Amino acid sequence: METRQIANQTTTFHRYNTVIVGAGAAAMNCAVHLCDFMAQKGIANPKERIAVVTAGLGLGASRMSGSDKQTYYKIGTSPDIADSAEEFAKSLTAAGCCHGDSALIEAIGSLREFYHLVQAGVPFPTDSAGTFIGYKTDHDPYERATSAGPKTSRFMSQCLQKQLERYGVEIYDRQELAHLLTTGSGESKRITGVVTVDKNNIDESNYAINVYLGANIILAAGGPGEMFKTTVYPKGQLGIHGLAFKAGLIGANLTESQFGLASIKFRWNVSGTYMQAVPRIFSTDADGKDENEFLTDFFPSMSKMATDIFLKGYQWPFDPQRIENLQSSLVDILVFNETQKGRRVYMDFLKNPVGSDSMDEFDIDELEPEAREYLRKAGALQKTPIERLAHMNTPAIEIYKENGIDLYSEPLEIAVCAQHNNGGFAVDKWWQSNIPQTFIIGEMAGTHGVKRPGGSALNAGQTGGLRAAEYVVNVYGCELPDYSDKQTEIDSQLSDIVAGLEQFKNSSGLNPEQALEEIRSRMTASGGHIRELNDAQKALKEAVGLYKNIQQKGFNSNSAKGVVKAIQAEHLALASVGYLKAVVELLKQGSGSRGSHLVLAKDGIEIHPDVIDKATNKPLKFKPENQSLRNSILHIEYDENSPDLFGSSIIELRPAPTERKAFEPAWMDYREGKIYS
User: Fold this and answer.
1) Across the strands, what pairs with 259?
2) Is residue 655 part of a domain?
3) C-alpha distances in angstroms, 584 versus 483, 534, 629?
4) What is the rounded distance in angstroms from the CA atom of residue 78 to the CA atom of residue 143?
């Protein structure tokens, strides 16, 4: 560590072999594996070569998000259900836009990483024989899912952090990432470090700048959850996508966000047993009055309506392919329509669904067979939803009580929320980005494709961290970097950063909070689960205008906290441009409705005869998926000379490897390091 003056600012330089950005399960796991691999190489003190840098240990999706029984997806371990890595990979790639090699690798690595978590102390349940019995989750043909309860990913992060602390690795907390340092150009370009402002020590005159130089950079900072107004991401989960774009990293599948019903007072997915308990769903006016059983206008019977509510449990993500013929995602559409009217929607666990005058009363015996048999097998035949929920999953009630909501006495306000981004940044089969020695893991890695089985993101984050750590140690080595010949480049960028931070104190600049609110409103309206080309093009133009306005005017931040908000608003503004550019380019290809978003079209398929387009007073219609695009992925790359600030390209999918070597030649390749070629 050394301290120098850069543009009248005291700047502290740290030097490590590998710098990991993020504090969730993916980041912690990667750091632990790095320590293990370095120790195997004979490195006496791995802690001196690895650093974890985070905006907040308590922030992030792994630490703060979950559901009724948050799922971890792995190869099946139920003793009577056969499974294989190839079958697992087929499930990951089934909906398209997912590379075959990374899918197979996630399958192969799933049990290795699952048992690593077990050994770390994550309390995945077993039976008396030690079997990790599975269950089915969404888009899952086998019983691959398991869970440690509502806080599965939190347990993962905490247990892995304890492992890391035993190694003594430094975790630099409350560091707001302001820039990714780059040196060189073309094929020699590298990301050589991360620049932060220390939120513990920043004030009006001192930005408390830290520079973490690394031979290898691993980005695991999560998704851009705060880019949306209606979101179930934890508060403060902004991601660093704008900074990554600016550094030259290529976005992949950014259009494929996942949306679903979630509570909004306390941000939490209402999937699984929350829906399988079959609660009443109703709406009120903005003041909580004028209760309305709005679902009843769209269903022919109580049996169908209540069964669709039940099915939202394991058909939780909004899915345009589950709308026609009164399928379960119609519920999401109806909830969204109700909130668009300015009304509020609630789940009430004290009452069963209430029907119209023409409907029968709720009766579990009258549910459709799939729902009825599930509840019978679960023994969940109690009279009220809260009793059924308590029988099936008491921790699902307790998680709300811990956050000030008593499901025994009050309804739960819900909305259709952004929940996860299946896209992110392009990586190869070692999770290395388009810039050598920069790796991307967790939600930042765009590995999932259009749809994914529930819980597979947790497995992908663990497997990606393992792969990145293995490649770093065995290919790039464990030495500390020497950037003395790059010091002029580095100092020049740091001077520019200070100048930019100074511009954030411009009295005539923009208000960062207002800019953030504008970004969120625009993304939810035009980049959310309902999309239309003309609207998206208009939104993209507005987003470009906001980002250019920020560059010209800066912000009027007059406090240390305001400077941090300005940093966030600037890079989130660029991220929103990138995401909207991807949405526009995909819609221009005629992609149609896929994954978790619906594309409106005047000549499309009718959603429901009573779901009306306000503009035409006719039933609203949507465009079906263009399945010919499943064999490609949309890439976008920052280009400051482009009118939209981004260029785009289409790439073909990488296939899964089919070569199967005999043991002896495979062993030789391993001994000689050829597996990393």
Assistant:
1) 418
2) no
3) 40, 9, 15
4) 7
Q: Which two tokens stand for residue 3?
A: 């301290």
**Residues 665, 671, 675, 677: is their CA dihedral positive or negative?**
negative
| Residue span of the structural domain in which 108 resides | 2-67+99-122+151-258+420-486
Q: What are phi and psi of 160, to 5 degrees?
A: -70, -35
Q: Note the pTM of the prediction, 2 decimals.
A: 0.97
Q: Domain check: are 443 and 470 in the same one?
A: yes
Strand partners, 175: 198
Distance separating alpha carbons of residues 375 and 352, to the nearest angstrom: 14
Token pair 């990586």 in the structure block, residue: 427
pLDDT score recorded for residue 284? 98
d(CA 398, CA 424): 33
Angle at 631 (CA atoms; ends 626, 636), nearest 5 degrees = 90
Question: Is the pLDDT score of 204 beyond 90?
Answer: no
Neighbour order of strands in the sheet with 424-425: 424-425, 251-252, 632-638, 646-652
DSSP 505-555: B-TTSB-HHHHHHHHHHHHHHHSSSEE-HHHHHHHHHHHHHHHHHHHHH-B
| Number of neighbours of residue 483 by Cβ within 10 angstroms | 18
Please state whether beta strands 632-638 and 251-252 pair in parallel, antiparallel, or not at all (unpaired).
antiparallel
What's the total number of domains in the chain?
3
The amino acid present at 477, given as its one-letter code, is G
For 641-656, what is the mean pLDDT? 97
Contact criterion met (CB below 8 Å) for 645 and 544: yes
**CA atoms in the 13 A half-sphere facing the CB of 215:** 16
* Residue 297 and residue 322 in one domain: yes
pLDDT at site 140: 79
Mutual angle of helices 100-120 and 85-93, in 10-degree steps: 120
Q: Could you tell me if residue 444 is inside a domain?
A: yes
Residue 164 in contact with residue 157, Cβ under 8 Å? no
pLDDT of 489: 96
Question: Do 159 and 177 meet the contact criterion of CB atoms below 8 Å apart?
Answer: no
Q: Confidence band (pLDDT; 50, 70, 90) for 59?
A: confident
Residues ≥6 apart with Cβ < 8 Å to 428:
none
Q: What is the DSSP letter of 475?
A: I
Whether residue 74 contacts residue 459, with contact meaning beta carbons closer than 8 Å, is answered with yes
**What's the pLDDT at 121?**
98
Look up residue 480 and give its two tokens: 């500390």
The amino acid present at 591, given as its one-letter code, is S
Can you point out the beta strands (E) in 541-631?
598-606, 612-613, 618-619, 621-622
Q: Are residues 170 and 42 in the same domain?
A: yes
Q: Which residue has the tokens 């896929």?
A: 594
